[in-house]
Design a protein that fits this description.
Elements: E1 7-16, E2 22-25, E3 32-35, H1 43-49, E4 57-62, E5 76-80, E6 95-100, E7 103-113, E8 116-120, E9 130-141, H2 144-149
Antiparallel strand pairs: 1-2, 1-3, 1-9, 4-9, 5-8, 6-7, 7-8
The chain binds zinc ion.
Amino acid sequence: MKIEDNKVVQMHYHLTDEKGTVLDSSQGKEPLAYIHGVGNIIIGLEKQLSGKVAGDKVNAVVAPEEGYGERDDSLVQVVPKSGFQGDEELTLGMQVQVGTEQGNAIATVAKIEGEDVTLDVNHPLAGVTLTFDVEVVEVRDATDEELEHGHVHGPGGHHH
Ligand code: ZN
C-alpha cells in the first residue's frame, strides 16, 4: 500500500540539522504514527513520503519554507525582567508563554542582560534546514474515527 492522503503511516525517523546535530529521533521508542495529508507533520516531509511503501528508506531534506518557516526578526523582543511574575528564575533557553496580538505563544528566552530579557517567539526550528532519515514501518487506511479526530489512534498515536 502506497502512502497517500488519509493513510496512516508508521515510521521511524531520525532528525538532524545542517550541522548534523540530532534534534529528534524515534530510536528506542515506538514508531511515530501520523495521518498523511491532514497537516499532522510538516509539508516538506509529507511531500517526500508520498508514494512510498512499508520498508522504504527515505532521506528527506526539508528547507525552512516547507518546514518550520524562515526566522522573523520582528518576533524577537526585549522586555523588562520585572514583567515576569512567579518564582521561577528565568534561564537561557527557557520557554515561557507570552501574549501576542495573535493570542498566546511560546517564546524562548534568548538573552538575559541585567533587567533586559530578550524573547524569541520564532519556532526553535525556524530557519533550519532539516534532514529526516525515515524508515516507513507500516501504511494502512485511516479509520473514519481517526479522520474525524484528525489524529491516529493506537500504536504511535493517541491512546484513548
Ligand atoms: Zn481521537
